[in-house]
Amino acid sequence: MKCIKYGMLCLVLWFAAGWFHRAWSAEVVKSPEMFFGFQPGADRKLVTYKQLIAYLQHLESHSGRLRLLEFGKTTLGKPMFLAFISSRDNLQRLDSLKEINRKLATDSGLDSASRAELYENGRVFVMASLSMHSSEVGPSQMLPEFAHRLVTSKDRGIVEHLSNVVLMMVASLNPDGMDMIDKHYRTYLNTKYEGCTMPGLYHKYVGHDNNRDFLTLSQKESLAFNRVFLSWYPHVYIDKHQMGTTGPRYYVPPFHDPVSENYDHAILEWIGVFGAGLSRDLGARGLSGVANHWVFDNYWLGSTATANWKNVISMLTEAASCKLASPVYIEPTEIAFFGKGLSENKVSVNLPDPWKGGLWRLSDILVYENASMDSMLKTASLHRREILRFRAELCLREIHRGRTEPPYYYVIPAKQHDGSEMVRMVNLLKEHGVRVYRLRTAVEIGSRVFVPQDVIVPLSQPYRAFIKEAMEGQMYPQRHYTPGGELIRPYDVTSWSLPLHAGVECIPVTTRSKQLESSMQELENDYRHPDKQADLDESFWALAYPVEENASFKAAFYALDLGLRVDRLSEPLSLKNRVLSAGSFLIYPKTSKTTGLKSIFQQVETQPIVLKQKHSVSVASIKKPSIAVVETYMHDMDAGWTRFFLDAHRVGYTVLRPGDFEKLDLKKKFDVIVFPDTSKDLLVKGRFSEDMPYYQVDFPPKYQKGMGEKGLAGLMDFIDRGGRIVAWERSTKLFFGELKTKVGKNVGAADALKLPIRDMTKQARDGGLHVPGSLLRVELNTKHPLTLGMPEMTGVFSRGALVMQTRPPLLDTDRRVIAVYPEKDLLQSGYIKGEKLLANRPAMVWLKMGRGQLVLFGFNPLFRGSTPATYKLVWNSLLLP
Questions:
Q1: CA distance 436 to 524
Q2: Can you say whether the dihedral through the CA atoms of 823, 824, 828, 833 is positive or negative?
Q3: DSSP E strands, 187-274
Q4: Nearest CA to 72 among 160, 174, 1, 188?
Q5: By C-alpha distance, which of 161, 181, 153 is closest to 52?
Q6: CA angle, residues 243, 352, 308, in degrees to nearest 5
Q7: How far apart are CA 365 and CA 139, in angstroms?
Q8: Residues lower than pLDDT 50 in the chain
Q9: What is the 3-state secondary structure (H, E, C) of 142-168?
Q10: What residues have CB less than 8 Å from 389, skipping those under 6 apart?
Q11: In the prediction, which pLDDT does 41 show?
């Protein structure tokens, strides 16, 4: 009897404990509204990055369905977090699921039984990156509500989906920018500037271009994010963005044409499956204005969708924006479409239920974002086994293609014009998960002999599609709306070839060679140039850095920054085993010790020549130039990339705003003023021209100051007194037409002068020139100081933004054509229409005006940190005597 009573007591206590646990959990697992004091999505309210992470940590500590992982640091040092949301059981065995992912993605040696077991035990990993573009606040603001609902839900459907799927939610792919936008929004809340554009970039360097960096991996955020892919091998990826206010309310896949021909067609089919689910599920909730197969394409490799070339089902969504967290009202007559695929707000195949206009709030965006993530979760869950099988079979197919379809290997010769760029490119491939090998013995294939230390990239590996896309020159797939009709234009650029953009020789091998394969040794660690020594001897006269190497310029600027003496050879120097070209650098230790030079030697990629004894050489001493970089407040991304380029190579500079020109004695402060690509109207007037309504400036007047007449006069005075100008693409238009100057003994103080150059851009475009971001061949004047270290011919990145023509000079001016477009074989990679309009035109020009010098580029020599082949042209411009 006592046993029965005791048992009954235990049962009562067990039920009571369960009730109290549920009641306690309901109390401590706070809703977002309880935690923040407002519901995310409420008008004029934003959750900060710190609050967002604190709430995710709260959910992690009170739920078994969420786990946080710090996966990197931002450019400004903030931690970046990944939230895993799944069933308790899945999260408890996360490491074993991670290993299953790796095997399915990379292991071609599994037998059918082993693969079947992995299909049974594996889970679909769905990765989502939120609010990479920080003014697109909705996705990150959605996460608290979405995460809370999933970790507390008892809905049978959600519970089942979480048992099949592991969600990987990147809380913000730009935490620095999230804080910048929040601070900006709060600053102007309840003023007439509420919800206005943030002046400047919402990232230290690249702003909106942060999702254009997933091939070059130049930024800390994209590098850390790429490493997550290589650690966890997710199966599905979605990148969540926002767009303008007056178009569709939401964009979902599939993409529009063109698409890449390198990745497997089944990727597109799976994108279609998820896209169909999104359209159906959002429509079922009564969410109108959902468009698909619209303006966005999946052709270009550099965005987050790079994952498609790595066998991941990758896509994006785009929500219509409001004014950050402030509502907007859209009249039905204001709804408009741009780009390809949709032209009007009417019922159509890719817009089944048009939105009719009205008030649009952040809370509306969050409704669409929640619905889209629910749909992604459901589709992944319903197709769990199929997706796992697809990933494993795609790995096998890509390896098989690498063995049966040419090219079979890319060979990167160890001997290069610029060995430092070869080293950088090899290590970049390794960062992308590509397996890279070194040749141990000489191998002859056809008429070519490959020698020991050459680098081999075989294509018989899981990332074959990525390797081929990244290494070959691009040939834009010309697709048309109707047979023989208008060309479907790309959404972004059409050239990204790593070897061509870097000026590195890379040889595709189209014959399989067992001898080559047996002579390959895999590179396990970071690649170093074969000649690179581990340390530096204590006693020497100087270090000689060859001018052909980009890294040599980094060494020179590093040395100048340390206060070391740096010379440039005025003529070639013959040594025992090689000849150092004119323009090469000699860097000397301050004393007999090598303290400063050791850090340069260790950190710079190239191998210098150690000169033990003093040489009798002709040199020109160089000094650290005082450099200004002109940057507007209108999200000036190219200026940001320029700052990144200079910082990465230890080149000091000052940021100069257009409104600063009238206040400063420019020549007293600067030797060189650099004008990255931006609008002339923005530089002079502080705003865009009236025919560009999409780019109207809406922030306070203090950020809208242009140079004005007084600032332009100061700029001309800077040139008159011997200053140097370096400018490219649209910024060069400052220096065309009449210039008020004082140059020359016989010229009056207010005389107008024209440089011996004309802007022919409009005529070329009217004639049909179209260059959507392509690599074009130019021939260089190698006898000029601006081309020191350059080959006779190189590729330059052009968007057709500037077409120039020189003419004989008048008064105290002069000009030299530094680079010219050839008459034939102009296109190296990408697409061009009307290339004859560029034939025999200058691509880069040096100009003299009185004592001043100008270097004008018709192309972008630093485009998005992805064109190392033309970096030396910029460095030589900064060091021009």
A1: 8
A2: positive
A3: 236-243, 250-252, 256-259
A4: 174
A5: 181
A6: 55
A7: 8
A8: 2-4, 10-14, 16-26, 743-750
A9: HHHHHHHHHHHCCCHHHHHHHHHEEEE
A10: 115, 119
A11: 98
Other beta carbons within 10 Å of 687: 17
Q: Tell me the residue type at 868.
A: P
Q: So what's the pLDDT on residue 11?
A: 46
If we measure between CA atoms, which residue out of 322, 162, 333, 186 comes closest to residue 249? 322
- Report which of 865, 740, 837, 711 is spatially closest to residue 302, judged by C-alpha positions: 865
Query: In the block, which residue shows the tokens 């592991």?
Result: 166
Cα separation, 300 vs 495, in Å, equals 8
Cα 442 from Cα 518, distance rounded (Å): 11
Q: Answer whether 640's CB lies under 8 Å from 206's CB.
A: yes
Burial of 737 (0-12, 13-18, 19+ CB in 10 A): exposed
Is 621 in contact with 567 (CB distance < 8 Å)?
Answer: yes
For the segment 245-281, what is each residue's pLDDT rounded down to a tens digit?
Answer: 999 999 999 999 999 999 999 999 999 999 999 999 9
3-class state of residue 170 by DSSP: strand
Q: How far apart are CA 78 and CA 94, in angstroms?
A: 25
- Rounded CA-CA distance 51/55 in Å is 6
Rounded distance between C-alpha atoms, residue 119 and residue 108, angstroms: 15
- How many residues are present in the chain? 881
Residue 780, φ and ψ in degrees, nearest 5: -105, 145
Encoding tokens for residue 31?
Answer: 């809703």
CA atoms within 13 A on the CB side of 696: 6
Contacts of 396 (CB under 8 A, 6+ apart): 108
> CB of 569 within 8 A of CB of 619?
yes
- The DSSP bridge pattern shows strands 566-569 and 585-587 to be antiparallel
Q: What are phi and psi of 318, to 5 degrees?
A: -140, 120
Contacts of 752 (CB under 8 A, 6+ apart): 738, 739, 740, 741
| CB burial readout 403-436, b (16+ within 10 A) else e | eeeebbbbbbbbebbbbbbbbbbbbbbbebbbbb
Tell me what pLDDT residue 740 has. Answer: 80
User: DSSP string covering 514-566, please?
Assistant: HHHHHTEEE--S----TT--SS--S--SEEEE-TT-HHHHHHHHHHHHTT--E
User: Using CA atoms, how far apart are residues 327 and 44, in angstroms rounded to an integer?
Assistant: 8
Q: Report residue 833: phi and psi, to 5°.
A: -120, 135
pLDDT score of 694 = 56
For 81-102, how does the pLDDT look when each residue is reduced to its tens digit (9 = 90+)? 999 999 999 999 999 999 999 9
Threshold 0.90, pTM exceeds: yes
What is the distance between the alpha carbons of residues 105 and 415, in angstroms, rounded to a whole number? 34
Residue located via tokens 């970089």: 629
Please give the distance of CA 187 from its chain centroid, rounded to a whole number. Answer: 29
- Write down the pLDDT at residue 753: 84
DSSP 488: P
C-alpha 583: how far from chain center: 32
Exposed e or buried b per residue across 603-638, where buried means at least 16 C-beta atoms within 10 angstroms of its C-beta: ebbbbbbebeeebebebeebebbebbbbbbbbbbbb
Closest CA to 51 of 186, 223, 225: 186
To the nearest 10°, the Cα dihedral for 594, 599, 602, 604? -110
Residue with tokens 């230390």: 453
The first and second tokens of residue 22, run together, are 């549920």
